[in-house]
Amino acid sequence: MTEEKLSFQAEVSRLLDIVAHSLYSEKEVFLRELVSNASDACDRLRYAALTQPELTAGDPGFRIRIVPDKAARTLTIADNGIGMNREDLVENLGTIARSGTAAFLTSLSGDNRKDFSLIGQFGVGFYSAFMVADRVEVFTRKAGDATLWRWASDGKGSFTVGAVPEGEVPADGGPARGTRIVLHLREGEDDYLEELRLRTIIKKYSDHIAVPIVLGTGEEAAPANAASALWTRPKSEITPEQYKEFYHHAGHAFDDPWLTLHWRAEGVIEYTGLLFVPSQRPFDLFDPQRRHRVKLYVRRVFITDEAESLVPGWLRFLRGVVDSEDLPLNISREMLQHNPTLAKLRSGITKRVLGELTKKAADPESAADYARFWDAFGAVLKEGLYEDHAHRDELLKLLRVRTTASGGELIGLDTYVGRMKEGQEAIYYIAGEDAAALEKSPQLEGYRAKGVEVLLLTDPVDEFWVGTVREAQGKPFKSVTRGGADLAKIQGGPDTPPAERPAEGDLASLIALLKMTLGDTVKDVRASERLTDSAVCLVADEGDLDIHLERLLKQHRQLDTAATRILEVNPGHPLVRRLAERVAAGGAQDGLADVAWLLLDQARIVEGEPLPDPVAFSRRLALFVERGLAA
């Protein structure tokens, strides 16, 4: 078979450009990434061999070998793991088949030094080889297959892949199974050919890897790492640096862990957990598939990193391993879906993680640290409020929100309830996409005048969990954009006298005119308790969807029709008073009809809704400006 020349996926080319020109101080991590991949390949073959023992026949021991060649200026990283065929090579080394990749890479600044720190959210894996190599060759043979494949690239936009012809097979026959990566080092990277330098890097980054890492070609060479599963060691024997490097290996991450959890459970079920909460938000955190990155082992044998029911979707930011003593080694991924032991593991893991997060949240000295965690992962935890009734109470204790009175700081619901005004019976909130824009909403005016604190909810999931939870600490959640405002019951507010209002009869006549003019465009027109500065606003009726929620559902094509809204007018606003006087005096009705439509359009604009007839709005506005200039 002849070699094919193929182009990298656009996202790969972008990533390679960043990696190849990254910070010099970070270059040594290429070895960590390649060793981690080799370790994963060995784990996957160990699992496959449980049901297909012939795959490891004649070579049952797993190892990773690193061979520097000063004469050829090459560094080779070889493993006898699962190996790859042509399809695997193209998919794994030519494509990044992960949702959100393009969006993530588009968001990068173009400053390679800054962007490299963000790649910690992504993980560069194999492509880190191009930090030190100007050409990379991969020789690989999938376990159980006869064909040896070769992949090669200079990292500049294309690669070649093809079966190795008999006449070009390496002198040693190439790997009998597994993968051999040959790095042709760039000028100036010769220190990666020094045994002492390599040994130091292995000890620093890969000491915890359970597969022996052998340095050199001799069969008698001793492993350069401890070669034992880190999670099986006593906590007292593990340093923070070792935990950090294991997190980098298990999570294929560049950031440091925000929280490390290492425990052994004994009793009804026995298992060990070594889990990490990242300090940075992974780029694919909001991937629709909601996959976690926790690896499942059974008695130190890797089983899968796709056991969906091992960790709830709202804890998918976790990284690490769970090692069970009770699951059978030959369990299939299909059997895992409905396995009762796995359900108990999930329960234990969830309880442990929530317990540790609760400690962090309750510690006043950790408030700033916890706030950083919440900013990164709070939106995901709130999914649990919506879908996991069993853990709702614990999650409500973890909840942090910004409010109209918090000055941008995050507070808990207990703090909010403790600051509620006399006569206040509900936890008020307003939902939207931007906190700064929400704080300018007319619906908040009356609440601000009364000194009532309002939650500013800006995550898409907020509308859903609030509607599901309904109440906290005995207080119902209530949107300030829905239903009639009950501000009259709340004590407090400014000492300034209320604004002058039109006579009740005049106001009633104006409202009747607005209803008649606007017709079915609005559900109702009424005097507002919530407005103090603005003339008008739109609100949802008590039984209708919240305005922001309806907009979200329409954007995602989950809703075809929109409910008509209630138009509230502020009796104390000068414009409303003048209009009431005009109506009472029997002024020109045509002009007042135009005003009615302008008021409705003004309320729509403030609410962020598109105008159904921008041309008519523009005409009416021009007409009134003309009249004002002529007066």
TrEMBL record:
Matching Pfam families: HATPase_c_3, HSP90
Domain Histidine kinase/HSP90-like ATPase: from-to ranges: 26-189
Compartment(s) where it occurs, according to its Swiss-Prot or TrEMBL record: Cytoplasm
Gene Ontology cellular component annotations, sorted alphabetically: cytoplasm
C, as annotated region: 552-631
SMART domains: HATPase_c
Entries under NCBIfam families matching the protein: PRK05218.1
Subunit organization: Homodimer.
PANTHER family in alphabetical order: HEAT SHOCK PROTEIN 90 FAMILY MEMBER (PTHR11528)
Protein name in UniProt: Chaperone protein HtpG
Organism of origin: Rhodospirillum centenum (strain ATCC 51521 / SW)
